[in-house]
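--- STAGE predict ---
source: upstream dedup step, 1 unique chain passed
mode: sequence only
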Amino acid sequence: MSSSQFDSSHSTATAGLTNARTRIVGNRTGFLADAIITLVRFFRAIGEVLSAWFRRVSSVVTPLGWSMLFLVPAAFVFGYGLGWVELVAVAFAGTVLILIAAAYLIGRNAFAIELTVGHSRVVVGDRATGLITVTNPTRRRLIGVKVEVPVGRGLAEIAMPGLPRGAAFRHEFLVPTTHRGVLAIGPVRTVRADPVGLVRRELVWTTAKELFIHPRTIGIPSTSTGFVRDLEGNPTRDLSNSDVSFHALREYVPGDERRYIHWKSTAKTGTYMVRQFEETRRSHLVIALSLASANYATDEEFEMAVSVAGSLGARAIRDARNVAVVVSEKTPEFAKRKVLAVRHLNTLTRTRLLDDLAVVEHAESALGIMDVARVAADEVTGISVAFLVCGSLATPTELRAASTKFPPGVEVVAVVCDPETIPGLRRVAGLSVLTIGYLEDLQKSLARAAAA
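--- STAGE serialize ---
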């Protein structure tokens, strides 16, 4: 159960952990601390239930409507109690307005509404649009209404005119793609409200559509990563009795497989001779992306890091290499200990990898680069190349410590995203550190490293 195990066997179980529990009770684990956390979680759950109920009711009754529901009974009480005819008149007028508003909540227009999104996936900054088509399938004229389309956290409002029978209304709207993520578009709803604004009835007509906004990536030539040892499955110095790279002949010893006997040499020497091979190592890439906020100085650094992971992963998938892309897991808010785990992203196709990268976000409680390297080294077997992707706040000491988590012979490349610095390459024992200021620097830095 390595994907969700707690770091309970280490003295650093709470070192560097920041979540809701540590903010409330720090590192305390006694009965009083647990009781406080239980109360906080209970009141938070109650608050969520009340909030959901209030949102449901407030979606129909406006703040003005709530005010009217309070003022009308008060006007009746004080009007009759104090003998103020004016207040009684106001109370009856308010009652009439409430009844008229209630009438607007009855019935449903017979529209046929369709929502179409031009593309299901775009890259950050690309143009994306949605199209609403409203038709009148009835034999009578339908009055105009206001149409609303939620777009992420925003809202597209459309004033639809009245439609004669059989008529159609089309409206195209822009979808913002400035931020990476999965954008929910819709559902389309029509809004009916009374003239005064006491009530508001929303009728939902379509299901929501999802638009994946992928991180920006760049093309990396396959040869640009040739500086990484064993990337092309080059032979090692280790000898093997069975592989694909022939090395030499030797005398037969008990236990050798007979299919490797070289009969021509056996006939010449009069002694059984068998083929000896060199072990080949097929490249198995690991791309580890840190989601720890402590590793990044700005959101710009994090977005660049996501783009780097996507570019490297997409290149590896295109080259049909064995590749694993992992990101930090987050420790739950009320967990007592740090969770040592990583999440494996889908690398079956480039599209699925970018879909997963579209939704990753940094967090205070996510594992740092050193822990990510440690877990990745434990979970992924046969690693030959490891890319560690992080921001400028990851110190050289942390990067060196992260590189030591991998077995000997693994080429470790740390890609540090820092828009405030000049691109560079530093090599230390078992570790290459590429520092990039722009995403385009990744291609140049890899090419420079290959030529070095």
